Amino acid sequence: MLREMAMPRRFILTLSCPQRPGIVHAVTSFLFGHGCDIVEHQQFDDPLRGALFLRTEVVKVTGEADAEHLASAFKEVAEEFGMSFTLSDDRPQRVLVMVSRMGHCLNDLIFRWRAGSLNAELVAVVSNHEDLRPMAEAAGLPFYHVPVTPESKPQAEQRMLEIVDQHRAEVVVLARYMQVLSDNLCLKLLGRAINIHHSFLPGFKGAKPYHQAFDRGVKLVGATAHYVTPTLDEGPIIEQEVIRIDHTYDPRALTTVGRDAEALALARAVRWHSERRVLLNERSTVVFR
User: Fold this and answer.
1) Which of 274, 262, 283 is nearest to 209 (CA)?
2) Which of 191, 182, 103 is nearest to 139 (CA)?
3) Dihedral sign, CA of 155, 159, 164, 165?
4) Could you give the C-alpha distances from 226 to 55, 159, 172, 198, 202, in angstroms and in order?
5) Backbone dihedral angles phi then psi of residue 182, each to the nearest 5 degrees
6) For residue 224, how many C-alpha atoms fall within 13 Å in the half-sphere facing its CB?
């Protein structure tokens, strides 16, 4: 009778640091010395900023160690080269989704999650309205109704943070959540909150963006997935999607194709973030696809 072979443990190292000779050699030597075999390696040298960005995925082929012990051992290398780094296992990240009344992005995320193509784990849905409760609960996701008014906003945001902690959510996704987060909440979620915007930023801000696009006779409809920052809709961009249209598209048709673009851009951004493929580069990002 054949014994089941244990799958080798996978780890992902991401880092950024000032450019200088010897970085890749130091990283690969460390990994080899700790019994790791590289299965995927990508790097980007940014000559304009004088920085190097790296993502390396490895399997542990000899010895026993977890991500925490490897990360602790890697600190010596990181300090020598002035690196900012993370070293983690390849477990899908836990995602809390925030919505209002429009369900196209939530529906798409749920479909991809259940199909196994999102590479992220949806854990709960929070909304300032009750409209999407049936969609969330039909997928087996806990649904939390947290109403928001100007007077109750601080208490509502505190409740949101409690739910994030309760479900150990590592990523918060604003899937057409139609409330502006306070600067305080943006800072607490910095680098782990993703928003979807209905245009190539910055354009067609405010109400009825597709009606504005129709009035201007646009030829491209786009959507932008970006990290949330205190500066509204100006966070580092992760992904953009575009669909070509023409004069025959009325506001209703524009809304339909626009929502398709939103769902595609958001799903890619969530997957790439969960796979540790997105690194911040000042106000921009490096995305290792």
Assistant:
1) 262
2) 103
3) positive
4) 20, 24, 12, 11, 12
5) -65, 160
6) 16
Query: Does 90 participate in catalysis according to the annotation?
Result: no
Band of pLDDT at residue 6, cut at 50, 70 and 90: low
Tell me the residue type at 273: H
Give, rounded to a whole angstrom, the gap between the first and last alpha carbons of the chain.
Answer: 41
Instruction: Please identify which of the residues 46, 90, 233, 260 carries the catalytic annotation.
Output: 233
CA separation for the pair 38, 40 (Å, rounded): 6
Tokens matching residue 155: 């208490």
Q: C-alpha 245: how far from its chain's center? A: 28
In contact, 95 and 276? CB cutoff 8 Å = no
Rg from Cα positions in the chain: 21
* Chain segment 52-98, per-residue pLDDT in tens: 999 999 999 888 778 999 999 999 999 999 999 999 999 999 999 99
